[in-house]
Write a structure and sequence with these properties.
Blueprint lengths: L8 E2 L5 E5 L2 E6 L2 E6 L5 E5 L2 E5 L5 H22 L2 E8 L4 E5 L2 E5 L6 E3 L5 E6 L3 E6 L2 H14 L9 E4 L17
């Protein structure tokens, strides 16, 4: 059996799970998430735990077993605690501001870049150079953070741009002075 797929997912008391056919809905204090299950996977609840099972030991079913369990565990974690990704803005004159719910970035372009949040996502600013993307959907939080980073990825010569908090950017050496003979 799959080492990951066979692990039960503990359900906190404030989390409610509804399984309707091939779709699972998980409600918690932070919100509600829905996801269709892969066609062959089945999910059941027993004694405050969510279990995922597969019909056979074929390679495809084994792969889907662990994946489905991980996705459902992420949903439970999201509706109870939520997820967040932190980004840092590095560069002289580079900064972020909030305009209502929108995020306005000034990154050395000729114009400010306005980024509206997707439904279920919020932006939290710490000063002018730290942005935190928060939400209950792990995939959506990661995708929005990646989209923000893609607006101005870190430069490999000076290190200017948007990077994940704690990300190490290897800087290249600049031009070496040539000797005149």
């Amino acid at each position: 059996m799959s080492r990951i797929g066979r692990l039960p997912i503990p359900l906190p008391k404030e989390v409610a799970v509804a399984i309707e056919g091939n779709e699972i809905t998980i409600k918690g204090p932070r919100g509600e998430l829905r996801r269709p299950l892969p066609p062959d996977m089945t999910a059941t609840t027993q004694e405050g735990k969510l279990l995922v099972s597969r019909p056979s030991d074929s390679r495809q079913h084994r792969a889907l077993h662990g994946l489905t369990r991980s996705l459902l565990a992420g949903m439970v974690e999201g509706v109870t605690h939520g997820f967040q990704k932190s980004l840092e803005i590095v560069g002289v004159g580079y900064r972020a501001q909030k305009d209502g719910d929108n995020l306005v970035l000034q990154l050395g372009f000729t114009h400010p870049v306005k980024v509206p949040p997707l439904p279920g996502i919020s932006f939290v600013l710490e000063g002018t150079n730290k942005v935190t993307v928060a939400g209950i959907n792990k995939e959506l939080v990661g995708q929005v953070a990646a989209n923000l980073r893609a607006i101005k990825p870190p430069d490999h010569y000076k290190g200017k741009g948007i990077r994940y908090a704690g990300e190490h950017v290897r800087l290249k050496a600049g031009k070496a002075l040539s000797k005149k003979t």
